[in-house]
């Protein structure tokens, strides 16, 4: 269930780690613009133009911020989203995690040695010393994932802010929970057992209202609109809402169908919408349009939309959490302090304009507050072969040879000379040698080119190129293990494109 998202320029991050924060000067003696400050200002301007006023207002109410402070906070979060994978890659074995502070501009990065403090400070982040690297704690978490939990244990996760593996258990089961984790190999000083006040359950009870209905009885909420290369418009939601083949109705549209559903283990589903349904990048409640799927770091502000309780905001508490429902354990979900109630299941979690995931379950309610988990959207997209409907995607690409790949993405280039990186403005890791293949389909009448790049330890280098004069390109490359990404480039023209790729 793990995915890597949000890395537009790892090379830039790595360069920043080497160069540091010293000011550059031109020969005339006039100080050049600070690139980091320029990037922050440009990012803030884009957010001010794209973030819906309703989201700004709700975040202001939730966190006690002014509108300007909300935009400052969202700017910090957006920059941290895109930098997070590159920071982890650059710090490697010393990396202990990244999270957002309580204010509007502080980002913390944990490292296991003081020698790495300078690298963190060069990025403008605040270093903090920890005992365990994030990879080590994640390894301990996997030990728990691969074992049956004792009765009364409701979930577990890595808390990067305290550098611990946290196990949640009912009061009567805390001793058993600790003994279970230690026996499996989690060191005592890396473990914290917390009392779970309530038992999480999926938010999929049979209730009245709108949204979408499963087999004309139970109700859930749409997550995000997607476009499939062969099926067309549809949406992703929670897996526990319905099984594969179940019928879906909503409004005046013709019945749709659950094409894919995974629960427990995961909690995602892909629904093929019927005639009369139209994919939209909007999120209900604030008219916010989805722009991408960058992963929000711990501490980021986040908002949820659901058909029972509407629109609510809060913070990301932990990524990659395991939670035990009565039906079984779901791993890789994200823990938040946003409230939700039955019927909100499957609904959208969004941070700024970045899609995060679909409401899974939790405890509490929107009167007293509670904890809610969401299934990250990336795995649902990868498993279904669909792509997010975003504000820049325009009409979804139709059927084509790119649809034969198991991993499919979409985007849009505004014109000649523009470029984008996939998957999802990020990269992927191949742990074995093998063939990397991809197909790019751009708009007719354009000339889009495709490049496969590999990280050589300090920069991205082109290892395969397809640059014909047409709008369709294909790549097949036999490579060794490592980090890879695709660069989509417009030699001429602009518009929406589809990219399908296959990894070793």
The number of helices is 8
Strand content: 35-45%
| CATH homology-level superfamily of the largest domain | Trypsin-like serine proteases
Number of domains: 4
**Cα radius of gyration in angstroms:** 22 Å
Q: Average pLDDT value?
A: 83
* Largest sheet, spatial ordering of strands: 9-8-12-13-14-11-10-23
SS-based structural class? alpha+beta
User: Poorly predicted ranges (pLDDT <50, ≥5 residues)?
Assistant: 1-31, 205-210, 394-401
What's the shape?
globular
Features:
single chain; 504 residues; GMP Synthetase, Chain A, domain 3; 4 domains; six-stranded antiparallel beta barrel; 8 helices; 32 strands; 20% helix; disordered N terminus; Peptidase_S1_PA_chymotrypsin
Give a description of the structure:
By secondary structure, this protein is α+β, with helices and mostly antiparallel strands. 20% of the residues lie in helices and 38% in strands. It has helices at residues 10-19, 35-50, 53-63, 67-91, 117-122, 134-145, 174-184, 377-384, and strands at residues 95-100, 107-111, 126-129, 153-159, 164-169, 191-195, 201-202, 212-214, 218-220, 224-228, 232-237, 247-249, 256-262, 268-272, 282-283, 288-289, 301-306, 310-325, 328-336, 348-351, 354-365, 369-376, 387-388, 407-413, 419-422, 428-430, 434-441, 447-455, 460-466, 472-479, 482-492, 495-502. The protein is globular and about 70 Å long.
């Amino acid at each position: 269930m793990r995915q890597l998202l949000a890395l537009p320029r790892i090379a830039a991050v790595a360069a920043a780690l080497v160069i540091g924060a010293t000011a550059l000067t031109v020969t005339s003696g006039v100080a050049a613009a600070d690139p980091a400050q320029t990037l922050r200002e440009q990012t803030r301007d884009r957010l001010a133009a794209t973030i819906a006023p309703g989201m700004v207002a709700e975040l202001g109410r939730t966190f006690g911020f002014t509108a300007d402070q909300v935009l400052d906070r969202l700017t910090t979060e957006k920059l941290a989203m895109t930098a997070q994978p590159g920071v982890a890659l650059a710090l490697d074995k010393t990396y202990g995690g990244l999270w957002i502070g309580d204010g509007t501009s502080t980002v913390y990065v944990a490292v296991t040695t003081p020698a790495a403090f300078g690298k963190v400070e060069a990025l403008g982040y605040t270093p903090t010393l920890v005992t365990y690297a994030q990879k080590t704690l994640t390894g301990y978490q996997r030990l728990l994932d691969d074992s049956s939990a004792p009765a009364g244990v409701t979930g577990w996760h890595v808390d990067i802010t305290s550098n611990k593996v946290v196990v949640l258990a009912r009061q009567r089961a805390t001793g058993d929970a600790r003994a279970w984790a230690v026996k499996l190999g989690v060191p005592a000083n890396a473990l914290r057992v917390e009392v779970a006040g309530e038992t999480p359950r999926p938010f999929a009870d049979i209730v009245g209202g709108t949204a979408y209905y499963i087999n004309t009885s139970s109700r859930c909420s749409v997550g995000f609109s997607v476009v499939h290369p062969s099926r067309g418009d549809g949406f992703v939601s929670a897996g526990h809402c319905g099984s594969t083949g179940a019928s879906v109705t909503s409004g005046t549209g013709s019945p749709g169908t659950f094409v894919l559903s995974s629960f427990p283990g995961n909690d995602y589903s892909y629904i093929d919408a019927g005639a009369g349904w139209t994919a939209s990048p909007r999120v209900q409640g604030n008219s916010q349009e989805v722009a991408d799927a960058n992963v929000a770091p711990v501490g980021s502000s986040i908002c949820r939309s659901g058909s029972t309780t509407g629109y609510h905001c809060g913070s990301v508490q932990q990524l990659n959490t395991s939670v035990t429902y009565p039906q079984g354990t779901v791993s890789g979900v994200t823990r938040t302090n946003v409230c939700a109630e039955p019927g909100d299941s499957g609904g959208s979690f969004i941070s700024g304009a970045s899609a995060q995931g679909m409401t899974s379950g939790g405890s509490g309610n929107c009167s007293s507050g509670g904890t809610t988990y969401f299934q990250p959207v990336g795995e649902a997209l990868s498993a279904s072969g669909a792509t997010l409907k975003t504000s820049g995607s325009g009409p979804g690409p139709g059927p084509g040879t790119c649809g034969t790949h198991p991993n499919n993405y979409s985007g849009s280039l505004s014109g000649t000379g523009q470029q984008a990186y996939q998957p999802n403005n990020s990269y992927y890791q191949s742990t074995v040698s093998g063939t990397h293949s991809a197909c790019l389909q751009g708009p007719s009448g354009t000339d889009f080119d495709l490049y496969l790049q590999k990280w050589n330890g300090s920069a991205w280098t082109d290892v395969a190129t397809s640059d014909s004069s047409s709008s369709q390109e294909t790549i097949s490359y036999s490579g060794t293990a490592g980090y890879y990404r695709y660069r989509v480039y417009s030699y001429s023209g602009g518009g929406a494109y589809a990219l399908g790729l296959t990894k070793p």
